Here is the input.
Amino acid sequence: MTGATATQAARLLAAAARRRRLRVDPMGAALTALTLVAALAFFFPLYWALVTTVKPEVEVVRPGLRLWPETFTLEACAFVLTNSRILVWYLNSVVTSVAVTLLVILSSLLAGYALSQIAFPGRRLLYGMILASFIVPISALIVNHFLLVHRLGLLDSWAGIVLPQLIHPVVIIVYKQFFDAIPKEYREAAVVDGAGHFQLLFRIFLPMTTSVTAALAIITLISAWNNFLWPFLAQNSQEMMNVTVGITQVREAYGIRYARETASAVIAGLPMVMLNLVFQRQITRAIVLSGGIKA
Amino acid sequence: MTRRRDMAVAFILLLPFLAIYGVAFVYPTIDMVVLSLRKAPLIGAGEWAGLDNYVRLAGDRLFRIATRNTLWFVALTAPASTVLALLLAMGVARLRGWLQAAVLACFFLPFMLPVSVVYLIWHWILDTHFGIAQPIVAAVAGRSVSIFRTVSTFMPGVAFVTVWATVGFSVLLFLAGLRSIPQETSEAARLDGAGRIALFRHVTWPLIWPVTALVLTIQLISHLKVFDIVYLFNLRGRVDETMSLVQYVFRLAFQQNDGGYAATVAVAILVLVAVLSVLQFQLLRSRGQ
Here is the structure.
C-alpha cells in the first residue's frame, strides 16, 4: 500500500516536473527549433528540384534565389516524357523490380519456413552459410555476374537484370526468426488434425506473416527500384535501361537544359517518395528488423 | 517414413532458394577467385597466371590511389553520418504527432531516392555557373568552385551528398533505440535533478551506444563498397585521381577488358569487407555478453 502511494506520488511529481519543464525551457525550445531548421535544410534540395522543374529554362538560369516560379510551366516535364524513352525505362523498372520482389519474397518465405520448422540434416550448416554470405559484398561480384549472365545469354534482357539481384539473405533470416517465434502449439494442433507442412505453411502461418511480408516486400521493392550498379552493367541499349540508369545516360541528348534534367530526376524519384509517404510505417519496421539482423 | 517425407518437403521448399544461391552467388564467387588467377580478357579465353595478378596488385599505383580514395570517403562519411544521425534522432524524439512524422520524413525521404536522382539534384544545386549553393561555396572559398572537377574537393563533396542521402536510415535505427529506453528511467533521473547533459551521459548514452556501434559499423562496411555515386560525379571529372575501389574493378573489367586482374581487385575488396564484417560481428557479440 505504501509502495503504491509512493509510486503514485513519484508519478505526480514527475508529471509536475514535466509540465514545469514544458513551460520554461528555453534550451528545449532551442533544440526543437534547431531540429526544425535541420529538417528544412534536408528538404530544401528536394524542393529546389521540384521548383526548377516547373520553371521555364530562361528563368532557371537567371541569377538570384527565386523560391517560387514567376511563370509556371510543365514544358520540361512534357519534353522529357515525349523526347526520351523514359516511359520504356519506367516499364523496365517496374517489371524487373516487381519480379525481384516476388522471387525474393517467395523463395525466402519457403526457405525460412524449412529452416525454422523442419529438422533436416545440414540445417545448421545451411543457416551458417546464409549468415556467412553477408560478408561477401555483392558489388565485388559484378565482373562474374556479368560473365554469368553473358554465358546464360541473358545480357540486355529483363531476366539478366533480375537474376543477380535475387541475393537477399536478410529476408530469409527475418522469416526464419518470425517462424521460430510462433508458439509450438499451432504446429502441434495442426499435426493432430493431420495437416502436412504445406497446409501448415499456407493455411496457418502465411496469414500470420502478412505484416512482416508487407514490410519486407516494400523494402525489397525499393532497393530493387533504386539499384543502379547492376542494371547499369546488364544492358547496352536504351531499350533495356531502368529509369535510374536512363536518366543519367541521356544528359547529353538534352543539351545543357537544367529544367529538363531536374524534371527527369523528379519523374524518376517520385514513385519512391510516394511509396514512402504511404508505407512509412512498414518501411521503418523493415529497416529496424533488418538492422537488428546485421548485428 | 514421416522423417523421409519431412526431408522431401524441406528439399522442395529450399529448392528455389538453393537454385538462386547456387547460380547467382556461390558460382560467381568461386568463378571470381578462379578468374583472379588467370590472365584473361573479360570475355574469352585466357591463360593460367598463378599469383601474377596478386603480385601486380602489390605494386599497382592506381590500386593504391583507389584504396586511399575509398578509405578517405569512408572516413568522411561514416563518423559524421553516425553523429549527425544520433543528433537528428534525439531531435525527432522530442517531437510528437504529425510534426514528428513530417520532420522524420524530411530526413528519410532522400534515402528513398535512386542514387542517380540524388546525383542530378546535387549536380544542379552545386552547378558551377547556376547552382543555388555556389554563393555559399564562394563565401567559404572566396570564389566559385567546380567541386566535382577539382580533385581536392571531389571526395568531401561526394561525402556531403552521401551523408544527406543516407543519414535517414541511421536516424531510424537510433530512433528505435531511443524509443526502447524506458520512460521511467529518464523520468526518475530528471526527478533526481539530472540536467540535460547529465541525463544524456548517464542514461541515454549507456543505453544507446550499442546502436551507435551498430550504425557506425554498418556505415563503414557499406561505404567501403561505394561505386555509383562516385562514378556518376566523376563521369566528366578526373577519374584516375578520384575513383573508388569498386569503380577500379569496373574500369578494369568493362573499360580496359582486363577481366583477370579486375577479379583480383574484386577479391581484395571481398577480403577487406569480410575482415571488417568479422570484426564487427565480434565487437557486437562481445557487447552482447
In short: DSSP finds 16 helices and no strands in chain A. Residues 2-79 of chain A form one domain.
